[in-house]
UniProtKB/TrEMBL annotation:
Gene3D superfamilies listed in its UniProt record: 1.50.10.20, 2.60.120.1540, Alpha-macroglobulin, receptor-binding domain
Domain Alpha-macroglobulin receptor-binding: 379-416
GO CC aspect terms: extracellular space
Species annotation: Portunus trituberculatus
Domain of life: Eukaryota
Coiled-coil features, chain-numbered ranges: none
Protein name stated in the entry: Alpha 2-macroglobulin
Entries under Pfam families matching the protein: A2M_recep, TED_complement
InterPro entries in UniProt: A-macroglobulin_rcpt-bd, A-macroglobulin_rcpt-bd_sf, A2M/Complement_sys, Alpha-macroglobulin_TED, Terpenoid_cyclase/PrenylTrfase
Residues annotated as domain Alpha-macroglobulin-like TED: 1-272
SUPFAM superfamilies assigned: Alpha-macroglobulin receptor domain, Terpenoid cyclases/Protein prenyltransferases
Length: 418
């Protein structure tokens, strides 16, 4: 769907931005990233409505999604530096978003987002302020003039907001920094006052969002880093370095972070940090030691993008890493293990019944599959019902089309294998 496609599309942009800023782009990486962006761009156009908005299932949805359209807009705008993007597409999406701006400058939310983790900290927040701040960043990153009326009115929405949760403060600070509003620095001051700060790092303790407090924390730190980098990299250098160190410590063994949106924002923030401050030459020696291992790594300018790894031969053990030299390097320990299978989920109630239908020509079977979501957050991610037919039967596609077009909007599409 249009949401899942963007999950794969957006990270390529920030990988390329980071590598270009570090002057470490290779032909192989660039070719792959650009091909991913080109194919992702063409796929996303399938989910575009005639009015320029986007939604998970495209024109079959009743309306475009405000949040997804903003995400697509900012992604397409930033991808322009790497692949050809129709500026008409960007302009139409930008105008569609602006049509739903209220008198107080805030934006109305239209449509749905099925992939909850894509929305990150915005998910479950009924206030229009986080969404407005997000749209404000999308419009500005897509070339909307700071002096335009929609931008000045949209900036008033987060400025007048009194909420003080770290996620909202960080998102407001970044949006207003892009808009060159003086209040951005005030929100950074408030944000710093709520941070946990040590000599090594800076972060915010966050309540769980969709059960993932770590994801909300990464997203908050990334928006704070973007705000500081936009306002004054020199003045906030010490804080930015601490944020980069903490964000990097949350990276998982596959190179991403906890969830979807926090990974996208974190990659953007790290790329921005590289672009505004650059990186000093690297020449670091690392000695990894445990009870049954002594292994040396050397990180230099020629191999700084190469992942170097060694397997620990025995457990349990304590690992120490001694570093010497100059520059910045990330040392990460990854532990993978098996756990017993979880009990079946009770998130859904599912029933299935069959009925035999006889007529003069043949005997058919009618299957009735009913599902409902039972958890207290009331909204699931995208759900799929899979029905396997016994040998000798084929589905009635006309009946399937009627189910999709029934008018409830609950069934968005069907697929038939074989």
């Amino acid at each position: 769907c249009g949401e899942q496609n963007m999950v794969n599309f957006a990270p390529n942009i920030f990988v390329m931005q980071y590598l270009e800023a570090a002057e470490k782009t290779t032909a192989d990486i660039a070719t792959k990233a650009i091909e991913f962006m080109k194919s992702g761009y063409q796929r996303e156009l399938r989910y575009r409505h005639k009015d320029g908005s986007f939604s998970a299932f495209g024109p079959s949805d009743e309306s475009g999604s405000t949040w997804l359209t903003a995400f697509v807009l900012k992604s397409f705008a930033q991808a322009q530096q790497f692949i050809p993007i129709d500026t008409g597409d960007i302009d139409m999406s930008r105008e569609w978003l602006k049509r739903d701006q209220m008198e107080n400058g805030c934006f109305l939310s239209k449509g749905k987002v099925f992939h909850k983790s894509m929305k990150g900290g915005i998910a479950g927040n009924e206030s229009p302020v986080p969404l407005t701040a997000y749209i404000l960043t999308a419009l500005l990153e897509a070339g909307e003039l700071i002096v335009s009326r929609p931008i000045s009115e949209a900036a008033f929405c987060p400025v007048s907001d009194k909420s003080e949760d770290p996620y909202t403060l960080a998102l407001k600070a970044y949006a207003l920094a892009l808009a060159e509003a003086p209040e951005a620095a005030q929100f950074v001051v408030q944000l710093r006052g709520k941070a946990t700060v040590s000599t090594e790092d800076m972060y915010w303790e966050m309540p769980p969002v969709n059960g993932k407090s770590a994801a909300a924390g990464v997203e908050t730190a990334a928006y704070a880093l973007l705000a500081m980098a936009t306002l004054s990299p020199v003045d906030y250098l010490n804080d930015m370095q601490k944020l980069v160190k903490w964000i990097s410590s949350k990276r998982n063994g596959q190179g991403g972070f906890v969830s979807t949106q926090d990974t996208v924002v974190a990659l953007q923030a790290l790329a921005q940090f590289e672009m505004v401050l650059g990186q000093k030459p690297v020449d670091v020696a690392v000695l990894a030691s445990s009870t049954s291992l002594d292994h040396s790594f050397r990180i230099t300018e020629t191999n700084r993008l190469l992942l170097q790894r060694v397997d620990l031969p025995s457990f349990p053990t304590t690992v120490t890493a001694d570093l010497a030299g100059e520059g910045c390097a990330l040392v990460q320990a990854v532990l993978r293990y098996n756990i017993p299978e979880e009990d079946p989920s009770t998130a859904f109630s599912l029933t299935a019944t069959t009925q035999t239908v006889r007529d003069d020509k043949c005997i058919t079977k009618r299957i009735r599959a009913c599902a409902s979501y039972t958890l207290p957050d009331l909204k699931s991610n995208m759900a799929v019902i899979e029905i396997n037919l016994v040998s000798g039967y084929i589905p009635d596609k006309n009946d399937l089309k009627q189910v999709v077009g029934y008018g409830t909007g609950l069934i968005k599409r069907y697929e038939v294998d074989g």
